[in-house]
Design goal:
- The protein is α+β, with helices and mostly antiparallel strands.
- It contains three helices and six strands; from the N terminus they run αββαβββαβ.
- A six-stranded antiparallel β-sheet has the order 3-1-2-5-4-6.
- The protein is globular, with a radius of gyration of 13 Å.
Length: 115
């Protein structure tokens, strides 16, 4: 499963992370390495977290603890408060261009942030 599809699953029921909860971040990196989805495991209902990790592994993507890598990141998109999954974000890496990433963010009704 491509992480953009996984990002859609994040709209199921996540709460915004509380300050200082970054140590609960988990992420799924696409097998091509061009995208990564991160979410807060402490704020994700257990059944949703299980679906997300299974979808990541099923898509032969890499599931790990911690946030998405920042090195070489083109930018990321995050859901706005009250839309989708607050606190979840998707990062993009080359060969994805900034223009392509912005377009994907707009399609997901999320907020684009460069680098």
């Amino acid at each position: 499963m491509h992480p953009i599809a996984l990002f859609g699953l994040l709209g199921l029921a996540l709460a915004a992370p509380a300050p200082g909860e970054n140590h609960y971040l988990t992420h799924c990196t696409s097998k091509t390495g061009d995208s990564c989805v991160e979410w807060n495991a402490a704020r994700t209902p257990p059944d949703v977290h299980k679906k997300l990790t299974e979808a990541c592994k099923f898509g032969r993507s890499k599931f790990e603890m911690g946030g998405c890598p920042t090195e070489k990141r083109v930018g990321n998109c995050a859901y706005q408060e009250g839309a989708g999954a607050p606190g979840a974000k998707m990062s993009f890496y080359p060969p994805t261009t900034e223009a392509q990433a912005k377009q994907l963010c707009a399609a997901e009704k999320s907020v684009w942030t460069p680098r």
